[in-house]
Amino acid sequence: MKNILIIAGSDSVGGAGMQADIKTCEAFGCYCATAITAITAQNTNGVSGVLAVAPEILDAQLKMIDDELCIDAVKIGMLFNAELIKVVKTWLERVSSRVPIVIDPVCVAKSGAKLLQDDALNELKELLKFATIATPNLDEAKILNLDFNNLPCDILLKRTNLSEICEDSLFYKDGKIVKFQETLLEPNIMHGAGCSFSSAIACGLALKNELENSIKNAKKFITNSIKYAYKTNFGVRLLNHKKGIYE
């Protein structure tokens, strides 16, 4: 069994963040270790509060996991502030050369709530140089002001086409571009799809799949999870991770 380390925030409604990451890893048959960066009070309608963990607690979590497990891939999500990013950077400087790193540069929730402090933006952008691949959506790419002629890592830009299909575009550092398409299902807005997608890619890389194959499998997983998604009181559905892997 492959070991995936998730560094991310917690989502109280369980559809995104750390909870979605754990469900995704289990669906792919991987073991999931977690280093929590922040606790959020949220649901699909919004975020009412964020409490970041102390940097020394994040550092301690990473050290304890390192002592126990041989990590096969890392997925990084919500980091929230510059102090936490610095802890992760120090850790990545030591491990990034030997394990795949997937960074989902979480900046803003779908509800519009900020999940990254303004003064941490440059630190997050600097972190991308350690990534095997980063998975921003269009809004996050704009916030990060990514230069696609001089990328810090391979970039999978999510939701570049939402006409009759759901298309993501992989921009390699060498300039090559590859498109990935799946059926566009209703509703278009899902809670936790981005978190789950990046975790699914991390699982694929841990399982020794090639990058493009990992992305294809992750897109199919998300499509199936949306197809069988759960209804909520606010109309935004929650992914059914148990169904994602089986169709």
Sheet with the most strands, sense and barrel status: 9 strands, mixed
Low-confidence stretches: none
Strand residue percentage: 25-35%
Let me know the number of strands: 11
Q: Please provide the ordered H/E string of secondary-structure elements.
A: EHEEHEHEHEHEEEEHHEH
**CA-based shape:** globular
- Could you tell me the mean pLDDT? 91
Distance from N terminus to C terminus (CA atoms, Å) equals: 22 Å
**Helix proportion of residues, in percent?**
25-40%
Radius of gyration: 16 Å
Strand order of the largest sheet: 3-2-1-4-5-6-7-8-9
Estimated structural class? alpha/beta
Number of helices: 8
In short:
By secondary structure, the protein is α/β, with parallel strands linked by helices. The chain is 36% helix and 26% strand. A nine-stranded mixed β-sheet has the order 3-2-1-4-5-6-7-8-9. It has a two-stranded parallel ribbon with strand order 10-11.
